[in-house]
Amino acid sequence: MESGEGDAAVITALISRKGGVGKTTVAVNLAAALARTGRRVLLVDLDSQASASLSLGVARADLAPSTADVLTRGLPARQAVRPTATPGLELLTGSADLATVDFALAMLSSKEARLRQGLLPLRDDYELVFLDCPPWQSLLTTNALIAADRFVVPVVPQFLATEGVQNLLAGAARLRERFGASSSPLGLLLSMVDYRSRLTRTSIDALRGQYGPMVFATEIRVNVRLAEAPAFGRTIFQHDPAATGSQLFDLLAEEFLLRTGAMGRAVATPASAAPTPAIT
């Protein structure tokens, strides 16, 4: 499905080769920023650590039913979806059960397409769906790429970042060829950007030089308030709507809509809109 066609949700996977790149921070706050524009958004937590779910205020004892139940036990996804404190944003939680889901899926038919099948009944209920994936080389990530229309790769601008991106994009291309998946890269997103490091600018220049417009113009910079928010079970907009992190995610949401061709679907102005910071 091409983005912007029909009323079915555009599904976007957030993938990375390793943890610690700010992927969940991006998933939670980008989903929240887009919900604030009046869109119906679903965030699917595919990580056994359930970081996205905890970041949205779900207690660890309340994670069930989770995505694992949808994938391996046949629970209808609609029965596992729950609201969040952000109007318009709903959640399919992660849970510790996802740590062993690869083994459970291996014994099932169509093991690579279970997520796509599970989400199919929900596609008309939302405009945007985000999949917060575990690190690369997991059957869950394979499921996400087969279910998704597009994928975004958060990248921390550090030494060898370019090589890691090359390997990930090549692996995603092989999966698409093997399984006939239609997901394509929407872009590389610079995250956890810290210009106090002397190598940051060099790494960013190298990534932009190699990948050009594939790299999002918006950069998600290191921000204390952004780092604090998950500990309180809040998005950055709930934790500190005036923070630089809030402004950056509003800006990222706008760029995301432009890239997906969904800008014309806007139905509301983001609440408490703050001035957009300059990008350097």
Please write out the topology.
Layout: E1 10-14, H1 23-35, E2 41-45, H2 51-55, H3 67-72, H4 77-80, E3 82-83, E4 89-92, H5 101-106, H6 114-119, E5 128-132, H7 139-147, E6 150-155, H8 161-179, E7 184-193, H9 198-211, E8 215-221, H10 224-228, H11 236-239, H12 244-260
Parallel strand pairs: 1-5, 1-6, 2-4, 2-5, 6-7, 7-8
Antiparallel strand pairs: 3-4
- Cα(first) to Cα(last) distance is 34 Å
By helix and strand content, what is the structural category? alpha/beta
CATH superfamily: P-loop containing nucleotide triphosphate hydrolases
Query: With helices defined by DSSP (H or I, 4 residues minimum), what is the helix count?
Result: 12
Radius of gyration: 18 Å
Overall mean pLDDT stands at 89
What is the CATH C level class, in words? Alpha Beta
The CATH topology: Rossmann fold
Query: What percent of the residues sit in helical stretches (DSSP H or I)?
Result: 25-40%
Bin the strand percentage: 15-25%
* Spans where pLDDT lies below 50 across 5 or more residues: 1-5, 266-280
The biggest sheet, with number of strands, parallel, antiparallel or mixed sense and barrel status, is: 8 strands, mixed
Which shape, going by the Cα principal axes?
Answer: globular
Q: What order do the SSEs take from the amino end to the carboxyl end, as H and E?
A: EHEHHHEEHHEHEHEHEHHH
How many independent structural domains? 1
Count of beta strands: 8
- Neighbour order of strands in the largest sheet: 3-4-2-5-1-6-7-8
Indicate the CATH architecture: 3-Layer(aba) Sandwich
